[in-house]
Write a structure and sequence with these properties.
Blueprint (H helix, E strand, L loop, with lengths): L15 E5 L6 H18 L3 E4 L18 H15 L3 E4 L5 H6 L4 E4 L7 H8 L4 E5 L10 H8 L6 E5 L2 E2 L5 E2 L3 H7 L5 E4 L5 E2 L8 E2 L4 H10 L4 E7 L13 E2 L3 H15 L1
Parallel strand pairs: 1-2, 1-12, 2-3, 3-4, 4-5, 5-6, 6-9, 9-12, 12-13
Antiparallel strand pairs: 7-8, 10-11
């Protein structure tokens, strides 16, 4: 099991959950989402890591929402951790961000498009934090061993790999569940990023689409083939989210989904 500060329920035998809004939109919203998910995961004994991006660097249009300010958002992530006694995760995009973000969060996430960036992986590793690397949409699970090697050879063996689908044509993604098995073969925990796997990127409007109706399908299959963790972006009102609302799970549907996933988990262990 993961060795992350404040991670609860690690002896429950359940999968772990990374969940929260796509981006930190404000303190009140972040705290409300964290409180709701913390209550659910405590009830179900699921290890929980709060997710929120302090800045969205990969946007289709220049007028897309990117954040409320780096320091302001990072301090909100820190407050979530302090208020609810949970670890937090956020993504970084350039090597110089690693040390800064590591002062506020427990896990650093490497975005899929950047999973081959050696300087970024090394800088993240050198913080000593747990590093979660998303598999590139253009890579196989087998190829992700090189990302693991870069981090471990930089002196950090706390690595997580996350699948988020593979590019299928110009504006769709598909999930090849063989990649979960392949990445588990690298000896690290493996996560299924359910909601990003259902994106429809590169829309002509410049706003990413999605297929949230398939969230349950993707999540169930991931647990069935042995994923150690599930990543879900969720929001009280996805249509009002400032980033990636088209593929988010409504917050009021999270508990029911997790209950179903736990039954699958119990059936396979």
């Amino acid at each position: 099991m993961l060795e992350i500060p404040k991670l609860a329920h690690t002896t429950s035998g359940n999968f772990f959950l990374m969940a929260g809004p796509c981006a930190i939109e404000g303190e009140e919203m972040a705290l409300a989402i964290a409180e709701r998910i913390k209550n659910i995961t405590d009830k179900l004994q699921i290890p929980y890591i709060f997710k929120g991006s302090y800045r969205k660097a990969n946007r289709s249009r220049i007028d897309s929402f990117t954040g409320i300010g780096d320091e302001k958002a990072l301090k909100i992530l820190q407050k979530v951790s302090q208020e609810f006694d949970v670890p937090t995760i956020t993504d970084i995009h350039e090597a110089h961000e690693a040390a800064m973000a590591a002062e506020y969060v427990d896990v650093l996430q490497i975005p899929a498009f950047l999973c081959r960036q050696t300087d970024l992986l090394v800088a993240a590793a050198q913080t000593g934090k747990t590093i979660s690397v998303k598999k590139g949409q253009f890579l196989s699970g087998e190829a992700m061993r090189f990302a693991v090697d870069k981090i471990k050879e930089s002196g950090n063996d706390k690595v997580i790999l996350t699948d988020r689908g593979n590019s299928f044509g110009y504006s769709d993604l598909v999930v090849d569940y063989r990649n979960i098995v392949a990445m588990k073969g690298h000896g690290v925990p493996v996560v299924m990023d359910v909601t990003h796997s259902l994106q429809q990127p590169n829309q002509t409007s410049g706003v990413t689409g999605g297929k949230p109706a398939l969230i349950e399908t993707i999540a169930k299959a991931a647990i069935a083939v042995g994923a150690d963790g599930i990543f879900i972006e969720t929001h009280p009102v996805p249509s009002q989210a400032k980033s990636d609302g088209a593929n988010m799970l409504p917050l009021d549907q999270l508990e029911g989904l997790l209950e179903k996933l736990l039954r699958i988990r119990q059936a396979i262990i």
